[in-house]
Amino acid sequence: MKELIKDTIRKSLNALHLDLTKNLKYDRLTKEVIAQALKKNSNAIDVGCHKGEILDLILKYAPEGKHFAFEPIPDFYNALKIKYANRCEVFSFALSEKPGETTFNYVRNAPAYSGIMKRKYDVETPDVEELHVKVETLDHIIPSSVQIDFIKIDVEGGEFGVLKGSKELLNRCKPVVVFECGLGASDFYGTKPEALFDFLSNECSYKIHSLENWLMKKPAYSLSEFADCFNQNSEYYFVAQAGNL
User: Fold this and answer.
1) Tell me: the pLDDT tens digits for 120-131?
2) 3 phi and psi, to 5 degrees?
3) Mean pLDDT of 34-59
């Protein structure tokens, strides 16, 4: 009940454009990015689907598309399978740069912080249950015959691994990508902003923007600007897009 009330308040604040916290601002801007990036028949991927809030938006703006969702926490995965039956393909895998198996830290009293690696938790006494999950890559799971137009990645620090496991897809389809990357999560996976920037720009021909700058069609970040965002934690949600924007 408490979580339902929090979700209702957050959605109301988003609707009123009241950005009381940075996370509320990112929620609102992400919704605006999705509205602009998707067409009715766009195909999309939601990595770290959780309860399906972003997937609901994807279905709203791309009702004729083919969509894929990934959520390794069993309770959430089972609920998603029922909720989106015959509407989306839902997978119970964690995603990274190579297939295999791994332990997964399910934070029962703060599920949004769950991930392959333990990270900084903004709860006083995190209740962490260690699960064993299968790991896959998007390059292996998504058929090469399917054009992907949009990807959202929010896996509490493991985003670079997901991107590296999507290299063929990124180069083939050139989807718009919304992803999280910042201190307190990504650094627990050994992510360096320079390496992520180099991968997206030199191996995939992508530019990186803040959500707000992408919506306002402002220039992409330089390497030093992106590294400053990471090291200062001034921004931790980004849009990556292929091309010269």
Assistant:
1) 888 889 999 999
2) -70, -35
3) 97
Alpha carbons 100 and 111: distance in angstroms, whole number? 23
pLDDT at 57 over 70: yes
- Tens digit of pLDDT for each residue in 64-94? 999 999 999 999 999 999 999 999 999 999 9
State the pLDDT at residue 245.
Answer: 53
Query: pTM of the prediction?
Result: 0.90
Measured distance CA(6)–CA(110) in Å, rounded: 13
Domain residue ranges in the chain: 39-212+219-242
Rounded CA separation 151/18 (Å)? 26
Cβ within 8 Å of residue 90, ≥6 positions away: 49, 68, 69, 70, 71, 77, 80, 81, 84
What pLDDT score was predicted for residue 220? 97
- Give the span between the Cα atoms of 154 and 50, in whole angstroms: 9
Residue 195's nearest CA partner among 214, 170, 223, 220 is 223
Distance in angstroms between the alpha carbons of the first and the last residue of the chain = 43
CA–CA separation, 197 and 201 (whole Å): 6
Q: Cβ distance 153 to 182 under 8 Å?
A: no
Q: 3.40.50.720, 1.20.58.1970, 3.40.50.150, 3.40.50.2000: which CATH number matches 39-212+219-242?
A: 3.40.50.150
Enter the tokens of residue 45.
Answer: 């991927």
| DSSP string computed for 3-57 | HHHHHHHHHHHHHTT---SHHHHHHHHHHHHHHHH--TT--EEEES-TTSHHHHH
